[in-house]
Amino acid sequence: TNSDLKAAQAALRVAQQTEWSQRGSFFPSAALGFAASRNRGSALLAPVPAHNALLYDLFTPDVTVAYAPDVFGLNRRTAESLAAQTQSARFEMVATYNTLVGNVVVTAIQLAALNAQIKVTHKLVAMNRRMAKILRYQFEKGYASGVDYAAQKSQLAQVAATLPPLQKQRAQLHDLLAVLIGRYPAQEPKFTIALSSLALPANIPLSLPSQLVRQRPDIRQAEANLHAAS
CB 3.0–4.6 Å: which of 8, 147, 166, 175 could bond 93 by disulfide? Predict the structure, then answer.
């Protein structure tokens, strides 16, 4: 699992536990105590009445019950504020999840496009290498000039020089994708996407109802924060 998503889930659990702990203020609290002591009286004094012993034990149980009535609604408002903070943490987790999914999709598409570009570049290198081989044969037989052969070798070198940056970028995207899905960079993702398999939606609506904006987690998180503050 992604570390950012784990952090958001942990923050939600903390907010939930804090909210649940506040609910205890609606109930009375009880405390139970017990003390025991062993005492020895002085031999110069009279023994304890009705005991007639110099060595005796004392056991003191203690029970305390307390309850604070929520007359002015402080406990209710505090619990309501903590509940709103829990909602804020929940929407923050949803926003983190949506951002993570978007980043994974974008990275996977970029990686698919880069793989297709590298594949085409390999084909161009092979094609230019065959052309250089043909021109070299023609140059040796006197059918082509040295200028044409040198130009073809230069073009082959230019095309081959574009491969290392593409391969480096592919390695970076591979590592980024592994980190996003919660793996180490050395671990190979189990899925691969071909660029040719991707397609845009066939029917895209021209307009969307404004009520959809309220479903955005960042907006609902802002509403929860305002509720908690007020």
Answer: 8
168-190 in b/e burial notation, b at 16+ Cβ within 10 A?
eebeebbebbbebbebeeeeeee
> Alpha helices, DSSP H only, in the chain?
3-22, 74-141, 146-161, 163-180, 217-229
For residue 132, count other CB atoms closer than 10 A to its CB: 19
The H or E element containing residue 25 is none
Helix (H, G, I), strand (E, B) or coil at 230: coil
Collapsing DSSP to helix, strand or coil, 209 comes out as coil
pLDDT tens sequence across 162-206 = 999 999 999 999 889 888 888 887 776 666 778 888 888 888 888
Strand partners, 59: 36
- CA dist 52 and 168 (Å) reads 95
